[in-house]
Design brief:
With 253 residues, the protein is α+β, with helices and mostly antiparallel strands. The chain has one domain. Helices cover 27% and strands 19% of the residues. It has 3 helices and 11 strands. The strands form 4 sheets. Strands 5-6-7-8-9 form a 5-stranded antiparallel β-sheet. The longest helix has 51 residues. The chain is elongated, with a radius of gyration of 23 Å. The termini are far apart.
């Protein structure tokens, strides 16, 4: 006669469940980081394409960078519209980690500024407004700043063009039209630079928060890496050096 099989006792079952829970707690963050690393690689690819397209534009327009925004007669024309003939794929504007970082149509509608048909609805990247100026006699912004020439950039490998970020509304730590970084890749920001390379920028959260122009909650991060943007919550400005060799950062205009 076959002996009866002995089942698990309650204690044994609880021990097994506890072991599984411990293993899950250890492994799930590892898997999440691995998934985020894959998304970050795709984001880097987007930024590399954006760098290439921006520099193609610069070469086509007498080594002049595009303007950030200007009035086109019926609609406002932005940096994204300027690059559109070179991109031909609006998904390049969307980071896989945060594809709806900014609803462009909602943001500009809130400002009462009409955009042309075909404008990308969602974008994940901001640009260095000190590099992409408003242009002369800009009726939208009131600025009178001629576009920046490539030859005016003293340190191309250190000057950011486009990066993971938001467009801020007034409130909290942000001013209207600030373009704060978003360390969406495990406390890292992806960025491209004037010489065409892409790079990861380390950042940390400050705990402060505000709103984007489309009404989303956004959090403040500051750059940790040594260099011209250290301590900034934006990758804004054209880096230069003073007589002592220290970084200074700001607009050329």
């Amino acid at each position: 006669m076959r002996a009866k099989g002995r089942g698990f006792t309650l204690i044994e079952l609880l021990v097994v469940i506890a072991i599984i829970a411990i293993l899950a707690a250890i492994l799930f963050p590892v898997f999440a980081r691995a998934r985020e690393k894959a998304r970050q690689s795709s984001c880097m690819s987007n930024l590399k394409q954006l760098a290439t397209c921006t520099l193609m534009y610069v070469q086509d327009y007498d080594e002049t960078f595009p303007m950030s925004i200007y009035w086109g007669g019926t609609f406002a024309v932005t940096f994204y519209h300027e690059l559109d003939p070179y991109i031909k794929n609006q998904q390049v504007y969307q980071c896989p980690s945060k594809p709806r970082a900014l609803n462009v149509l909602t943001a500009f509608s809130n400002l009462g500024i009409p955009l042309p048909p075909g404008t990308p609805q969602y974008v994940s990247y901001m640009f260095n407004y000190a590099l992409f100026e408003d242009g002369p006699n800009n009726v939208l912004t009131g600025a009178n700043h001629p576009p920046i020439k490539l030859a005016e950039i003293p340190f191309p490998p250190d000057t950011v063009m486009v990066y993971d970020g938001h467009l801020a509304a007034q409130g909290g730590p942000f001013n209207l039209f600030d373009s704060p970084i978003d360390a969406r890749h495990n406390d890292m920001v992806d960025a491209n630079y004037v010489d065409g390379h892409t790079k990861v920028v380390k950042a940390r959260a400050t705990g402060a928060a505000g709103r984007s122009l489309d009404g989303q909650t956004i959090y403040q991060y500051v750059v940790l890496d040594e260099g011209p943007y250290k301590g900034y919550d934006e990758l804004w400005g054209i880096p230069r050096k003073d007589a002592a060799g220290n970084w200074i950062n700001g607009s050329l205009r």
